[in-house]
């Protein structure tokens, strides 16, 4: 029963769409009312008022001012300081020889360094793990030593080997 009611409803709706164009063409066309003289005068006043728009000045470019001044100061590893000043960007790094950084400042791309850290640097003495592996493969204990003065040397010695 529901299907029949639905089908009938759709049929009536479709019939309404089909009949609409036929009903429109059957009716006489409606005439467009003519404009009065007052309407023509009003439209003419709008056309004059609209006309060409008044010129608008273009936006001015923003002024480019001088860059801000900057200064930087870093503490050197040996207690001294280094300084610089610039007109753009400045940065500084304090000295820390355990990380191989003697200290430096950079202003406008120019870097000034403190004197170099003494000794061999933080990463030169790094062969202990390979020394231990080599000696352990031989069945030995190991003795690993590092010396930074005067030549930055390290020494691996296998001891108490079991043969």
At a glance:
The chain has 163 residues and is α+β, with helices and mostly antiparallel strands. The protein has helices at 2-26, 37-50, 128-137; strands spanning 70-75, 81-86, 90-93, 104-107, 110-113, 141-147, 153-159. Helices cover 30% and strands 23% of the residues.
How would you explain this protein's 3D organization?
It is a single chain. The chain is α+β, with helices and mostly antiparallel strands. The protein is 30% helix and 23% strand. It has a three-stranded antiparallel sheet with strand order 3-4-5, with no helix packed on it. The mean pLDDT is 77.
Helix/strand layout:
Elements: H1 2-26, H2 37-50, E1 70-75, E2 81-86, E3 90-93, E4 104-107, E5 110-113, H3 128-137, E6 141-147, E7 153-159
Antiparallel strand pairs: 1-2, 3-4, 4-5, 6-7
Could you give the distance between the termini?
102 Å
Name the strands of the widest sheet in spatial order: 3-4-5
Number of helices: 3
Task: Give me the secondary-structure category.
Answer: alpha+beta
Number of strands: 7
H and E string: HHEEEEEHEE
- Cα radius of gyration in angstroms: 47 Å
Q: What is the average per-residue confidence, as pLDDT, rounded to a whole number?
A: 77
Strand content: 15-25%
């Amino acid at each position: 029963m529901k299907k029949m009611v639905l089908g009938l409803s759709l049929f009536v709706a479709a019939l309404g769409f089909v009949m609409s164009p036929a009903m429109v063409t059957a009716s006489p066309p409606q005439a467009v009312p003519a404009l009065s003289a007052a309407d023509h005068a009003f439209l003419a006043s709008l056309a004059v008022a609209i006309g060409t728009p008044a010129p608008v000045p273009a936006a001015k470019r923003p002024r480019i001012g001088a860059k801000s001044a900057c200064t930087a100061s870093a503490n050197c590893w040996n207690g001294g300081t280094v300084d610089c000043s610039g007109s753009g960007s400045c940065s500084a790094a304090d000295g820390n020889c355990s990380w191989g950084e003697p200290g430096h400042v950079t202003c406008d791309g120019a870097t000034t360094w403190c004197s170099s850290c003494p000794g061999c640097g933080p990463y030169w003495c790094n062969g202990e793990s390979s020394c231990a592996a080599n000696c352990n493969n031989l069945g030995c204990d190991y003795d690993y030593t590092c010396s930074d003065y005067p030549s930055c040397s390290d020494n691996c010695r296998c001891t108490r080997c079991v043969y």
